[in-house]
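W.,

You were right to be curious about this one. When I first looked at the sequence I had no strong expectations either way, so I just let the prediction run and decided to look at it fresh. Below is the sequence, 137 residues in total, followed by the output.
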Amino acid sequence: MKHRRHIGNDIISADQVVGRTLIAQTAVPLKRYAQSTAPVVYTVARGGTVGVVYSWVKTDGVLYWQFYDANGSPYYAEHRPGRFSLDALQQQGAQTLEDIKEAQEKADNPISYAVTKLLRPVAFAAAAFFIIKAFQK
């Protein structure tokens, strides 16, 4: 099952995050256990590297990203919208669900995609141009 979470203002599948490095958009508290009651062992400052996501865990309805430190011990960061940099993820190849949907539409029917995404705006612009010209006379 794919989990969808807001990262920034976009929705991205958790599967797109696994294997990529999360960069803190805000201060990110890290815990040794994926529990709200677990103590914070370290806080990554804004702009800092949180780590490479190994997996994700959902506990009590809360999604936590799982990482491993240099000693092979797991640590976790609770997911919250806006906490991690979407730009950094996209630079690593992650795609938002909107990007994936658009790529699928383009692959499924390239002619329809070209008409709806490219020709329609040009047609509207041309129509607007001629309407404006008609009213200027």
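Here's what jumped out at me. Residues 110-136 form the longest helix (27 residues). And, maybe more interesting for your project: The chain has a mean pLDDT of 81.

Coffee later to discuss?

I.
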